C-alpha cells in the first residue's frame, strides 16, 4: 500500500547484500561493545578490590608505599628468574 514492500526474500537478500557492501565498514558490532564494557567493568571491580586490600593493609599498620616496594621487588625477582629484562 505504501510502495515500500518487497517482491520476496530474494529482493530482501539482495538489498541486505548491497547495504553490507556499501555501508558495512560503518557497521557497529554490538557484541564487541558489550565485551569491551564487560572488560571495563571487570577491571574496575579488580581496582576497587585492590584499593580495599590496600585500605585493610594500612588499617593493620602497614604502609602502602612499603607494600608497593615489596611487590615491585617480587616482580623484578620473578623477571630475573625468567630471564627477562626491563
Verbal overview:
The radius of gyration is 27 Å and the shape is elongated. 0% of the residues are buried. The mean pLDDT is 88. By secondary structure, the chain is mainly alpha-helical. The chain has a domain of 58 residues.
Question: How many strand units?
Answer: 0
Number of helices: 3
Q: Which band does the percent of strand residues land in? A: under 5%
Instruction: Work out the helicity level.
Output: over 70%
What kind of oligomer do you see? Answer: single chain
> What is the CA-based Rg, rounded?
27 Å
Report on the biggest sheet.
Answer: none
Q: Compute the average pLDDT.
A: 88
Which word captures the global form? elongated
Q: Helices and strands, in N-to-C order?
A: HHH
Report the structural category: mainly alpha
Terminal-residue CA separation: 71 Å
* Uncertain segments: none
Amino acid at each position: 500500500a505504501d510502495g515500500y514492500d518487497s517482491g520476496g526474500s530474494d529482493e530482501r537478500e539482495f538489498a541486505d547484500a548491497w547495504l553490507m557492501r556499501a555501508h558495512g565498514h560503518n557497521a557497529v558490532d554490538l557484541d564487541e561493545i558489550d565485551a569491551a564494557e564487560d572488560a571495563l567493568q571487570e577491571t574496575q571491580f579488580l581496582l576497587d578490590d585492590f584499593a580495599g586490600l590496600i585500605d585493610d593493609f594500612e588499617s593493620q599498620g602497614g604502609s602502602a608505599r612499603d607494600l608497593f616496594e615489596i611487590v615491585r621487588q617480587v616482580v623484578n625477582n620473578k623477571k630475573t628468574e625468567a630471564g627477562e629484562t626491563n
